[in-house]
Amino acid sequence: MSFSVHATTADAGVRAMKLSVGVPLLFWCWYLVAAQEICVPNPVGGVELASSGVLRWDASTNCPNTIYRVQIDLSGQKLYEIVVAALNYNVAFLLYCQTYTFFVIPIASNVIGAENYVTAVIPIPEGANIAINGLRGAQIDDDVLIQWQVGSQYPHCVDYFNLFIYDDDDDEAEVPKHLQVTQPGYLLQRVAKCSKYRFEVSSSYGGVNGTTERIEYSIPPAVNTPSLGEVRQNAISINTTWNLEKYHVNRCRVTSLLVTGTRFNATYPIEDTPERPNVQVSITGLRADSMYYFSVSTENSAGLSAPYQMAVQTLPIQSSPGVDIQI
Ligand SMILES: *[C@@H]1O[C@H](CO)[C@@H](O)[C@H](O)[C@H]1NC(C)=O
Ligand SMILES: *[C@@H]1O[C@H](CO)[C@@H](O)[C@H](O)[C@H]1NC(C)=O
Ligand SMILES: *[C@@H]1O[C@H](CO)[C@@H](O)[C@H](O)[C@H]1NC(C)=O
């Protein structure tokens, strides 16, 4: 750097001012540094994460009383920070199988040195068993939500879960439905009333299965509400066809159909089968041209359904030739 001392132009005064301010400041700064002997610690060496979950590094040795700030980042976000005097720090409290970046920053007498870092995955402890716990089911309308958990440090280690669904009422119960799910839950849709399930879940990680957890789950009973399929009447009879809720919707055993009227009462026993055919109800011996009120309900293992109420008028007697009507 050279300064012109022979300046004669108009900016000579400005230059003189720069000199008089600049030189003493520079000198003062140099003097401060020299006087306090600031020591900037060198970066640490050999930052590594041991399989035991301990972070280690080599000391920064150029300054006395060096301590270390350990900073842990996850996906570029600072997660954790601590200052230690030792040359290691146990990070086994972090989630296993998750990738973190570990920064080690030397600090000597409040002077911060440059960082060094390592990006590493917290290893799953040797021989760890990712057991399933808290396996439970919850009914949501016609569905069952099956949920479970693994230990709080393990969620990132699981590749998938094996879910076996045994339908105990099913003829093919020996062959369960096997699913591989990635979330710790599954929505089993449209379950039948009165059905019984068995759920088995295990975690799969690195080709190994954790301990299986099992539960049995019963869908509570519900009444079987009949719906009217068909109604036919003539002068002396009313025939009705009733559709019952099908077996895949409601497995509770149906025992009878009850017809309750002001003029007649009848119970029709039903031998329930998985096919669950429609039920024909024939009401005979009626008067022509009359209104009949009656209700129909189904009885099953959950009890009596709400009655289906109806009013049917029998036909008037017609004496058309060729039609033989018996009264
Ligand atoms: C893990 O479980 C699944 C499902 O039961 C099975 O097919 C697989 O063979 C098991 N793997 C091991 C290594 O046992
Ligand atoms: C009702 O069913 C009975 C017996 O099956 C039959 O004799 C009668 O004709 C039927 N009535 C009507 C209106 O279909
Ligand atoms: C049928 O049963 C109902 C209720 O049990 C009763 O109120 C009604 O009087 C009965 N009708 C006849 C015709 O027996």
Describe this structure in words.
The chain is mainly β. The chain contains one helix and 24 strands. The chain has one helix at residues 12-36, and strands at residues 45-49, 54-58, 66-74, 77-84, 88-90, 99-108, 111-112, 116-121, 133-140, 143-149, 160-167, 177-181, 185-188, 196-205, 208-209, 213-218, 227-233, 238-243, 254-261, 265-269, 279-283, 291-300, 303-304, 308-313. The strands form six sheets. Strands 3, 4, 6, 7 and 8 form a five-stranded antiparallel β-sheet that branches. A hairpin with a 2-residue loop joins β14 (196-205) and β15. The protein is rod-shaped. The model is unreliable at 1-23 (pLDDT under 50). Bound molecules: 2-acetamido-2-deoxy-beta-D-glucopyranose (3 copies). The site of one 2-acetamido-2-deoxy-beta-D-glucopyranose (NAG) has 6 residues, from β14 and β15.
How is the secondary structure organized here?
Blueprint: H1 12-36, E1 45-49, E2 54-58, E3 66-74, E4 77-84, E5 88-90, E6 99-108, E7 111-112, E8 116-121, E9 133-140, E10 143-149, E11 160-167, E12 177-181, E13 185-188, E14 196-205, E15 208-209, E16 213-218, E17 227-233, E18 238-243, E19 254-261, E20 265-269, E21 279-283, E22 291-300, E23 303-304, E24 308-313
Antiparallel strand pairs: 1-2, 2-5, 3-4, 3-6, 6-7, 6-8, 9-10, 10-13, 11-12, 11-14, 14-15, 14-16, 17-18, 18-21, 19-20, 19-22, 22-23, 22-24
